[in-house]
Every structure is written in C-alpha cells, then in structure tokens.
C-alpha cells in the first residue's frame, strides 16, 4: 500500500504570507496526487488534481507541483478564508490514501 | 451537483447499518463513486470505490469482508452496507464522486456526511 506523508502537521502563518505544504509518497506515483481543503464541520473541498492542475473556481493563489514521490501545495498570499486543514491524496492505485493533514492556523 | 448521505446513527458493536447517498445534478451512471470516512478529530480515510457500472469494487483493508459498496443507477443512489461494526468504525462517512480528469480520478464532489457511532 502507498503511504502519503505530509509535513508539517501544523503551520502558523499570517495573512499575506506564502506557505508551502509538502507531501511524500512511499513509492513513485507519477502525478496522481490531488489536494483538498477542509474547514471545521464541513466536507473537504477539491483544489488540485494531477499534482498541478487547478480545479475550476479555485483561486490562482493556490498552486501545486511535483512528480514521482515529492509534491508541494503552495498558497502564494494567504487570505483569511485559507485557514483550514489541507490533505494530499494519491489516486495512483487502490487502496487510495490520504496524507495525515496539515492544519494551517492564523499566527 | 448534489450528494446527500443518509442512514447514519448509533449502532452496537457487531451490528449492521446501511448508508445511502442520493445523487443529483450530474450523470450518476457515468461516474465512479467512493466512500471516505473521518473519525472524530482525525484525518480522512478512503473506504471503498465502485465503478460507474457497478462491475468493479475495491475496499480498504480495514473494512474488507465487512462492508459492501453498491449502486443503483436507475435510482441515482450509492450504498454502503456495513456489517460486523466495530468501535473503530465510528466516523463521519462521506460519499464522493470520482471525476475523470485526464486519467486522474480525484474526489471532485462530496456530500455533507453522515455520522456513524458504534457504541454499546
């Protein structure tokens, strides 16, 4: 099974900051990585697919990169509504798996 | 697109429950569908997937042999039959559609979730 490891597990930042979250797969998965945002009490929201393609309607301050085993999610200029938990997920093969999540908090 | 889960509740260990997910706003019969769960205060865990026609199913090891995913394309409804429930199955269960994005299949739409609590 493929393990997805995110870092950091939590991150404090201020509005306007640039932040990067990393995700490492336990084996090569090409670009079969997706990213989600989840706010308290809500279902996850789909942000990025194929490691770097932005889902329609997602602000351009979000970007993704990587291939193989190492992936990143970057938010170029944090907005108040971006404080949430972020998850990476591999769709390379079943069983699909998520990273453990990165909680982005206001400093 | 709307996905609405139902059927959650309190069940004793060893008991059974069937979750439903009513889909609307898209061509349900053209999409693979998944169940994803989240234990209280924990991260997301993929549970199961079923192909668009219902001919292929895959499960997480943690539920294999106890849970069964199925669908009724005539009713635009996804199901999860959960048997031999354990305390560790306590979670919010989400249904999600598997969009096809150039060969990638992210979970592009999610329901609001239904809470399953396994406790005596």
Q: Would you summarize the structure shown here?
A:
The complex is a heterodimer of chains A (107) and B (120). Chain A is built from no helices and 11 strands.
Structure, explained:
The complex is a heterodimer of chains A (107) and B (120). Chain A is mostly beta strands. Chain A is 0% helix and 50% strand. Chain A has strands spanning 4-7, 10-13, 19-25, 33-38, 45-49, 53-54, 62-67, 70-75, 85-90, 97-98, 102-106. In chain A, strands 2, 4, 5, 6, 9, 10 and 11 form a seven-stranded mixed beta sheet that branches. A four-stranded antiparallel beta sheet of chain A has the order 1-3-8-7, with no helix packed on it. Chain A is globular. Chain B is an all-beta fold and 120 residues long. Chain B has strands at residues 2-6, 9-11, 17-24, 32-38, 44-50, 57-59, 67-72, 77-82, 91-98, 107-110, 114-118. In chain B, strands 2, 4, 5, 6, 9, 10 and 11 form a seven-stranded mixed beta sheet that branches. A four-stranded antiparallel beta sheet of chain B has the order 1-3-8-7, with no helix packed on it. In chain B, a hairpin with an 8-residue loop joins β9 and β10. The mean pLDDT of chain B is 97. Chain A binds chain B through residues 1, 31-32, 34, 36, 38, 43-46, 49-50, 53, 55, 87, 89, 91, 94-101, and chain B through 34, 36, 43-46, 49, 58-61, 94, 99, 101-102, 104-113.
Helix content of chain B: under 10%
What is the number of helical segments of chain B per DSSP (H or I, 4+ residues)?
A: 0
Task: Give the overall form of chain B.
Answer: globular
Low-confidence stretches of chain A: none
Mean pLDDT across residues of chain A: 97
> What's the overall average pLDDT of chain B, rounded?
97
Distance between the termini of chain B: 37 Å
